[in-house]
């Protein structure tokens, strides 16, 4: 009996090298896997727009997990298969918390198969850099608004992103942890040592739930995952096997099935080749 297996990888710090690119060797390996009837996908904090640009030249033949599980997206036909929304009451409460601490960031929503990103102001270097990189490199659509609350009633809010120093973002945690219906992830940026991200999304949105949805949606018998950071722990728990790149954080390595070569050494591709998938 043939086992239908899926290889699913995180992007930043795992499949991507330090230049935020997929090497030509990795592209060839993944395309060879798919050409021989294998299955490949990604599970990332990134959105559809940036993921599509990064994955240009790679055959992704399975729905992908985006925004840490907030959405599941079909890259073949360009549709959102599933989106987990933050309850409106929780979204309003999140806004009250960030106002209290004088912190702002970005709010994401999905409507009519389109992702929209809202912001109130770019009042820090981190916010400006986040915005400018995504506009310049990925042509993302941002809209400046007077206040996040104005957009909650008529939009399906799926995600909030805040960035800056760890200590500053940590000030939000006690209040946010009191709210029902949401999950939080505070993690260090893969590329900048002193830059941290706080991501807020629906309690139903996780790489764990999204991967299990794909398992059933596509009838996979086995799932093999790859990652590098704490936000990949839910991915790990959803996989039958999970391998951490050698540059991964300790918390992930200690739970992984094994350790593979780092993201600058084509670790994921080398593992797939070693498994003799083609």
Automatic annotation (TrEMBL):
SUPFAM superfamilies: HAD-like. Signal peptide: none annotated. InterPro entries: Cof, HAD-like_sf, HAD-SF_hydro_IIB, HAD_sf. Gene3D superfamilies: 3.30.1240.10, HAD superfamily/HAD-like. It comes from the Bacteria. Keywords: Hydrolase. The keyword Hydrolase applies. Its EC number is 3.1.3.74. GO terms for molecular function: magnesium ion binding; pyridoxal phosphatase activity. GO terms for cellular component: cytosol. This is Pyridoxal phosphate phosphatase YbhA.
């Amino acid at each position: 009996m043939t086992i239908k297996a899926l290889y699913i990888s995180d992007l930043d710090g795992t499949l991507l090298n330090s230049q935020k690119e997929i090497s030509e060797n990795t592209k060839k390996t993944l395309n060879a896997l798919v050409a021989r009837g294998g299955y490949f996908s990604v599970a990332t904090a990134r959105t559809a727009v940036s993921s599509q640009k990064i994955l240009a030249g790679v055959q992704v033949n399975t729905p992908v997990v985006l925004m840490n599980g907030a959405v599941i997206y079909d890259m073949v036909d360009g549709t959102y298969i599933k989106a987990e929304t933050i309850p409106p009451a929780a979204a309003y409460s999140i806004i009250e918390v960030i106002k209290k601490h004088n912190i702002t960031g970005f709010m994401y929503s999905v409507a009519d198969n389109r992702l929209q990103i809202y912001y109130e102001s770019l009042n820090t270097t981190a916010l400006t850099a986040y915005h400018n990189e995504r506009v310049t490199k990925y042509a993302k659509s941002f809209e400046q608004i007077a206040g996040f609350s104005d957009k909650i009633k008529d939009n399906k809010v799926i995600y909030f992103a805040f960035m800056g120093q760890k200590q500053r973002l940590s000030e939000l945690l006690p209040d946010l942890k009191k709210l029902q219906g949401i999950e939080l992830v505070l993690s260090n940026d893969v590329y900048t040592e002193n830059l941290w991200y706080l991501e807020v999304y629906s309690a139903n949105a996780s790489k764990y739930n999204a991967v299990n949805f794909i398992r059933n949606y596509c009838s996979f018998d086995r799932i093999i995952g790859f990652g590098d950071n704490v936000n990949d722990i839910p991915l790990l728990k959803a996989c039958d096997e999970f391998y951490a790149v050698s540059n991964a954080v300790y918390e992930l390595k200690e739970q992984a099935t094994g350790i593979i070569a780092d993201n600058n050494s084509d670790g994921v591709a080398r593992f797939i080749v070693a498994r003799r998938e083609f």
